[in-house]
Write a structure and sequence with these properties.
The protein contains 9 helices and 12 strands. It is α/β, with parallel strands linked by helices and 303 residues long.
């Protein structure tokens, strides 16, 4: 019998995207699997509309926007408590191919040392172009950079490979990884939560794998726009960056100064120096906030 798979979709407004994503999962050729929508503080009636249009979908209400990590955790926990052996987390602005779960389950079963499996993520509006096939660390200029971003889908992206990092846009994670590594760090509202989890998974002895035969299409960010970003965006980005380097920088302060200093120069040039005061303020906040322990998965007996 196939292992149970739970699909956990994070939704914050943009119901049309959520509905299209759900319709693509209704065509999935795999059983058994369940679908969980995390209504992450939406203000467009997402929960009620999902219940009315997709009665097979289970809805988790957060009551407020918990951010990316906190929102995914709100769906991961009940999905695993319900018996899922694998969890497929993804954004609501994606649609999937019907065989995606079959491909990912087969790869996970063939490679028990894979702690994260990442599908090929193509652009929704240009389906012959890559959005991401993973990410790697770049020493200079220092950054974690996406692989394949906006490149044509070509032979170099058709072969499986091991990765350093995988974005939380779409991740397939076996149950034992959550049991051993824990949940996503909900101290990140957005940004760096995926890089943090990727490092923790590799530190636990697992591998991160890119599985190109599993394909989905991403509409790129609908909730974080590219232009006219408000102070909240810059402050949160800075706060998350500081948290990440406090967790993983060696040494923390020097690593943060080098990487985040580069971001200040780059984004200040692109968006104007006035925006960087909010980013720097976020960095300062991030270095003063307490580093709480990573959240852990409740046991199967805990309700």
């Amino acid at each position: 019998m196939n292992p149970e798979v739970a699909v956990v979709i994070l939704a914050y407004n943009n119901y049309a995207d959520t509905a299209e994503c759900l319709r693509s999962f209704l065509k999935i050729d795999y059983k058994p699997f369940s679908i969980w929508i995390v209504n992450n503080g939406s203000e467009d009636g997402t929960a009620q509309r999902v219940i009315g249009e997709f009665p097979v979908v289970r809805v988790v209400q957060t009551g407020q926007n918990l951010g990316v990590a906190g929102g995914f955790n709100a769906g991961i926990v009940p999905a695993l408590q319900a018996g899922a052996e694998h969890v497929f987390i993804l954004n609501n602005d994606t649609i999937v191919e019907p065989d995606i779960i079959c491909v990912l389950v087969a790869a996970a079963q063939a490679h028990p040392d894979y702690g994260i499996l990442m599908p090929k993520i193509l652009c929704y509006s240009a389906r012959d172009r890559i959005w991401s096939v993973g990410a790697r660390y770049r020493p200079f200029p220092p950054a974690i950079v996406m692989l394949g971003l906006d490149k044509p889908d070509a032979p170099p992206y058709t072969e499986p490979r091991l990765l350093e990092y995988a974005p939380t846009c779409a991740l397939f994670i076996p149950r034992q990884v959550f049991e051993q590594v824990g949940l996503l760090d909900d101290g990140y509202f957005f940004y760096y939560d995926d890089w943090d989890y990727s490092l923790r998974v590799r530190q636990a002895g697992y591998k991160i794998a890119y599985i190109p035969q599993a394909r989905l299409y991403h509409k790129v960010s609908r909730t974080i726009q590219k232009k006219g970003r408000p102070p909240f965006f810059w402050r949160t980005w800075g706060r998350s960056g500081a948290r990440f380097y406090r967790r993983h920088g060696r040494p923390a302060v020097l690593a943060a100064l080098v990487h985040l200093g580069y971001l200040v120069l780059r984004e200040g040039f692109r968006n104007g120096p006035a925006t960087m005061q909010h980013f720097v303020a976020g960095v300062v906040e991030g270095f003063h906030q307490p580093l709480t322990p990573y959240p852990t998965l409740p046991s199967r007996n805990e309700a």
